[in-house]
Amino acid sequence: MTPRMTAQPLLSIEEFEELAHRAPETVRLEFINGKVEVKPVPDGNHGEIAMWLLEQCMQQRPDLRLYLEQGLKVETYRRGRARPDGSLTPRKHFAGQGEWADPKGVLMTVEITSRDSDTDRRDRWEKRDGYAAVGIPVYLLVDRERCVITVHTEPKKGEYRSIIIRSFGERIELPDPVGIVLETEELKEFAD
């Protein structure tokens, strides 16, 4: 069962956005399930995985771009704000949008787990559910702790109905609308 919060948010979306705008560069803030979340600044291995994935996307789908750290409005009725490690979209998709963009048209979001106590709740549950709630077709979780890649697809009623899990080193296909195949042997170098 997925953990969910039902309490009223302590801040409005406008108050959160102002807080996030004024946060120091050493932290990234998100607003998930009505709570302010502090997202750790990525470490070197996290960055290497993001760049590896960016290269794979550009080589196989030059018509698309993997935007790193673009803020998205997530959850039903836009009550949340998440900053995925990556958002795959057509070129120039976010042009003219602000710090917190509409998720419509995002083909895939990516999260890479970090070394912090909240990664389980945040990346494996709450953000996954937020991305499903707004209908993002593919959610890719690169889990450094477990050394697996999990592909979530078929969002319906706030949940992904299909899940594929592969260990680092195995081949995994990202289905349409992404249409990319990942050979993940290199990820073994960056596991925690």
TrEMBL record:
InterPro entries: Nuclease_put_TT1808 (IPR012296), Restrct_endonuc-II-like (IPR011335), Uma2 (IPR008538). Gene3D superfamilies: tt1808, chain A. Pfam families: Uma2. Residues 14-181 form the Putative restriction endonuclease domain. This is Putative restriction endonuclease domain-containing protein. It comes from Streptomyces cinnamoneus.
